[in-house]
Amino acid sequence: MHGDAPIDRARIAALIPHQGDMCLWDEVLAWDAQTIRLRAMRHRDPAHPLRSGGRLRAVHLCEYGAQAMAVHGGLLAAAGGGCAAPGVLVALRGVQLRRARIDDLPGDLVCEARQLVASAASQQYGFRITHAGELLAEGRAAVVLQPQADVP
To answer: What are the GO MF terms of this UniProt record (predicted)?
Structure first.
């Protein structure tokens, strides 16, 4: 894994397009060329941007998984001296949700994501999100990367 210290929310926000409250991850716990492990604490926040009807539903864990991909891509690009290309989520596959909601969970959410396929045009990751060792969600997500304009 890269680095000795966790990566904080400010550094995460510098790596991904999701800003403010829509930056869902609070900390990168560990990462390497194929995997990333992150932690989130704000799923209990009544002002969470994905809440509706006073609840944060488990289906939103798919967004947490997709953002884990974005953070990992940003870290890989930064390690290579560049910036990650912006991506568009195009598919979710094999998603299994084990709960209806997550705003009532007292502890942190932890995501482990693994890069399955990567090219200059697209990426696919598998993700698993847990709470206190309990599996909440798992699945695969695919992103099509957008070409970056050349900077003169």
So the answer is: transferase activity
